[in-house]
Amino acid sequence: MQIYVVQPGDNVDMIAEETGISVERLVTDNQLIYPYELAVGQALLIAAGERAPSRSISVSGYAYPFISRWVLEQTLPYLSELPIFSYGFTYDGELLAPYLNEDWMITAALGQGVQPILTLTPFGVDGNFNNNLISSVVNNSVYTENLIQSMLTLMGEKGYRGVDIDFEYILASDRDAFTAFVRRVAEVMRANGYHTSVALAPKTSADQQGLLYEGKDYRALGEAADHVLLMTYEWGYTYGPPMAVAPINQVRRVVEYALTEIPAGKIDLGIPNYGYDWPLPYERGVTRAATINNVQAVRIAIAQGAEILFDELAQSPYFLYRDQSTGVEHEVWFEDVRSLQQKFNLIKEYNLRGCGYWQIMQWFRANWLLLADNFYIDR
């Protein structure tokens, strides 16, 4: 496959002729909308063929039960695992189901040979991660066993094939108790034919400070779990200053540290499937970025007449625009096939187990075609 960057004066007919593919294929693969306008600086995937779903890496993608059935149907052929978001729990270890029933997702995944995964999260009543919930369960063996047995029963009933432990903001004082909790979950799951993964905040050193990092012991968790997901995204985030969501220079630092603690064959690289649109000027504690998908980002650039630029250090696309209706300036960072290729290169460079997407709720066809070109075999 090739990546073509749109130049001033380009149109789809000219690009198709120059690259030797049909206009229909160019339009479909890049999700262009009639009349097929382009943004200068837009990266287009030029795909001559397709790949079969025979993977050399593991691929997972988180999804909520309200995902479009069509989007899930399109995405499943590219996945190995489908972590369904999410189950919660009470202070005494009672398992709490998602607000919407997920049975249809489990059936769809199993029908395509994809492993459905029970994702466990400590969400409080406000919908945010609650470290008091974590403390209550990981420090009480009775509550821990209640939760594990409830998961085990549910997994047998519903057809889940594994559990993913996605706990964030763990207190530093709970670090060892959390590791023991993961170890116990993994032992029980393994004994019953299931596997256990754990999501890891993006650390770059063992003693990294901060609530996201201090409660997670990379080496011990890597030993306890069957595999881990590095959450290598959210450098640019809703309430932070404008910047790349997953700058490759920062992602590389996390991977290189992780490899000093965890075998490469246990590590999945986290990949964001979204971007952010910040109103300017940015004011800490006030400014809130809008979450957008990658296709939407390009459509905003086209609608606003903005040129898409590419940051060489972060290896990420971005652009600036002044909203024509409000006069407010904006800065947008997102992912395209150029930034994704850099992440795929990192997986290959370090021979990682695979990758995990947060999240697959929006269809980005070019990503999956590029992934297949990197890691799947020819038809």
What would CATH call the architecture of the largest domain? Answer: Alpha-Beta Barrel
Global mean pLDDT:
96
* CATH level-4 homologous superfamily of the largest domain: Glycosidases
How many individual helices? 12
Domain module tally: 2
Helix vs. strand class: alpha/beta
- Beta-strand residue percentage: 15-25%
CATH class of the largest domain: Alpha Beta
Number of strands: 18
CATH-derived topology of the largest domain = TIM Barrel
The H-and-E topology, N to C, reads as: EHHEEEHEEHEHHEHEHEHEEEHEEEHEHE
Low-confidence stretches: none
Describe the sheet with the most strands. 9 strands, mixed
What shape does the CA trace take? globular
Strand order of the largest sheet: 4-17-11-10-9-8-7-5-6
The end-to-end distance, rounded to whole angstroms, is 15 Å
Helix content: 25-40%
Radius of gyration over all CA atoms, rounded: 21 Å
Quick tags:
Membrane-bound Lytic Murein Transglycosylase D, Chain A, 379 residues, alpha/beta, TIM Barrel
Write structural notes for this entry:
A 9-stranded mixed beta sheet has the order 4-17-11-10-9-8-7-5-6. A 5-stranded antiparallel beta sheet has the order 13-12-16-15-14. A hairpin with a 5-residue loop joins strand 5 and strand 6 (95-96). It is built from 12 helices and 18 strands. It folds into 2 domains: 1-49, LysM domain (Membrane-bound Lytic Murein Transglycosylase D, Chain A, Roll), CATH 3.10.350.10; 55-274 and 337-363, TIM Barrel. The longest helix is centred in the middle third of the chain and has 18 residues, at 141-158. Helix 7 (175-191) packs parallel to helix 8 (218-224). 34% of the residues lie in helices and 22% in strands. It has 379 residues and is an alpha/beta fold.
